[in-house]
Model the fold of this input.
Amino acid sequence: MERYIGKSVMKGIAIGRIFLYKKRDYQVTDQKVSDPAAEKECLLAAVERAKEQLTRLYEDAMRNVGEDHAAIFDIHRMLLEDEDYLDAAAGEIESGFNAVYAVDRAGTQFAELFAAMDDEYMRGRAADIRDISQRVIRILLDLPEEDICSDEPVVLLAEDLTPSETVKLDKSKILGFVTVKGSANSHTAILARSMNLPALVGVDIPLADELHGKSCVVDGFEGVFLVEPEDGELSRMVVRKNQWVADLEALEKLKGQDNVTKSGKRIDIFANIGNVEDADAACAADAGGIGLFRSEFLYLGRDTFPSEEEQYESYKAVLEKMEGKKVVIRTMDIGADKKVDYFGLEPEENPALGYRAIRICLDREEIFITQLRALYRAAAHGKLAIMFPMIISVEEVERIKQIVDMVRKDLVSEGKPVGDAELGIMIETPAAAVISDKLAKEVDFFSIGTNDLTQYTLAVDRQNQKLEGICDTHHEALLRLIEMTVKNAHEAGIWVGICGELGADTALTEWFLKIGVDELSVAASAVLKVRGAVRALP
Ligand code: PEP
Ligand code: MG
Done:
């Protein structure tokens, strides 16, 4: 048995097998081969194996998540039968190159071809061509699969996971996360919390291929990761896991109850989501609404911008699922750690202090306008509030409001049904907190993003695991900024919530109520825990 220590970012116990998730960690070299016929046979055998994997993935996905999600594996399997693609790869081999290089070349050429097409659907296939080529190359190089291709759910072990990678994972297949890098406020951690899965970051484990498939335990209470646990240890973990599950079940009795203290003070408890399906978890957790829909997740893990129509359908679906409860959708916060190739963003020295979120929207208005059009059309289907991230000035808010007015007028003149929406901003920069008295006069609500507010106030990179020790989320400077923001919001007569991870910190629940926070928006998995904390207060 091997024992590793890490930082727990989500409590709980996961027991299962390791799935070693490795990125595109291979080199493609253009070696010449002496026997092209043998090389072609290797290629065809690898293509066959790739198709078998895809069939298995398709069947698994059909069973677990339904046809909509499964279809992609069928498309990939069909692409692998495309004669032009196979001929192109075979042609490279005939010119004397090795199969890996041949597939890489054919994949790149075809992906470029698709990416240049006018039709949006066809452009989207460029990513699929890259995916299938990488699958075949991994087989040729005898590397583990990147998809979670297993009948039973697994514990995902990785160096690190970017938001783009996490959105592509089949979440029904994951029991828990363990990463070598990452920090408590990284988006992997946020995702783990939203999925209610035990997760550890900063686990110092060498990622040897032999780990793949080994039994393991993730102990998110103690921050321990056990590989091939001994029988005694395993039985102890099973007992603790059962206790954890029983504790979760006990929280269920809080469903349908009000978020009110014994002396009658109440607060709204909403949920944070990253996609349409998360709204189901929010409903199941009895959240009072959605306090933060991170809309940028709709932009990640794909090759082209989501169209107005696509976005409209997603926002509408969430509003309908929430059946009249408030849904706060944040306009896209791309940039910093949330990178998307098709935005064509230049590399930056300090991405967290760089070109991100509203800065992109106000610079590349066409992207912003598409999203706002989708939002206002969706507003006709429920109770929508729109909020803008990374605000630092009143001028930004004034410009946003001008664009919003223009978008609404255009939609009306086109005869499209539009709805109303509250307009709010995130307070997640010290600048916004300090001038929150002025900002409060411009908007309908504030939502305090404590993840970024912490990093910018303390000058502590939220991604940097080495700084965890000084990342004090109860730092007096941060708490003063929060208190000041709440006071300024109320003086201007607007409501104020907290949508950063600090909202779920029950050590602060009493204080949040005391200073008058109106709403806490937390991971769906934390809604009932926070409700319990509120109800336990005098
Ligand atoms: C925050 O910064 O607190 C926040 C909620 O936004 P994100 O974590 O997505 O940056
Ligand atoms: Mg933020």
